[in-house]
Design a protein that fits this description.
By secondary structure, this protein is α+β, with helices and mostly antiparallel strands. It contains six helices and 13 strands.
Length: about 260
């Protein structure tokens, strides 16, 4: 794993050491202050190049194209909101997806299944344990966004979102987010409408570099990826961890996200 991850800079393999606790404390501090943390250069450049070289032909030949109009909630109706409410404004998302079973021999899966990685994430999130997902399709996905394509405004279903940027585009593909736009007790529909209308002054934008690990509170943080431009696709891996073992998607969820229910 030392040839894949920069364990000198990010000592996941030295759990309990002073350096490990300092790394966790810094990540927690960034989560508290900004709703996210980034580990630049988490994956070594040579490993990133190997991953992209391996994934690209598979992406070109086997990826599932998912194009959809949706609101920020990915739900057709929200109780208490009239159909024409500005918080339900429709946006378009287009991406190309590879599932875990299509990249089974990729280094991406090795990173995902590396036990110290899950323990580090659990520590930053204040969780007792995190477990890899057992679903053969959904545990790890790699998404591609090509020229003219974007991931539009949405909230995630999970409390935290863990991603690894594998390839940055020439232009666009920037990560925009609005931390703590809603809470469990306050859906803040007026604030959501303000965001979608481009009137929220607290939107932040970052441009991630290939090899960067990005962890953020996706459930209450509205976020999107701006439109990609140019001849270089944006590749990002999405890792799914849960607080209990054995989590699987339903056949309906697999069909909706991937266009198939099994290998």
């Amino acid at each position: 794993m030392r040839n894949i991850l920069d364990l000198d800079r990010y000592p996941l393999d030295k759990e309990g050491s002073q350096a490990w606790h300092a790394m966790v404390a810094q990540a927690v501090g960034q989560l508290d202050a900004h709703g996210m943390f980034n580990l630049e250069g988490f994956v070594r450049p040579d490993a990133v190049r190997d991953i992209v070289a391996h994934i690209t032909p598979v992406m070109d030949a086997q990826s599932y194209t998912h194009k959809r109009l949706h609101n920020i909630y990915f739900q057709p109706e929200i109780p208490g909101l009239a159909p024409g409410h500005p918080a339900l404004q429709k946006v378009e998302t287009i991406n190309h997806t590879l599932c875990a079973d299509q990249i089974a021999d990729s280094l991406v899966l090795s990173i995902y299944r590396y036990p110290p990685f899950a323990r580090f994430l659990a520590a930053t999130m204040g969780k007792a344990d995190l477990y890899v997902m057992q679903d053969p399709l959904a545990s790890v996905n790699v998404m591609a966004y090509r020229s003219g394509e974007a991931l539009n405004w949405h909230f995630d279903r999970s409390e935290f979102t863990t991603t690894l940027l594998l390839q940055a585009p020439e232009i666009g593909g920037e990560f925009e987010y609005r931390s703590d736009l809603r809470s469990a007790s306050d859906p803040n529909y007026a604030g959501v409408a303000e965001l979608l209308e481009g009137r929220d002054p607290q939107i932040k934008r970052i441009r991630l570099q290939a090899g960067t690990l990005n962890v953020f509170r996706g459930k209450n943080t509205a976020h999107r990826v701006t439109t990609v431009e140019g001849h270089v696709d944006r590749y990002i891996a999405v890792f799914s961890y849960y607080e209990k073992p054995g989590v699987m998607f339903s056949d309906a969820e697999r069909l909706g996200f991937y266009g198939r229910t099994g290998a």
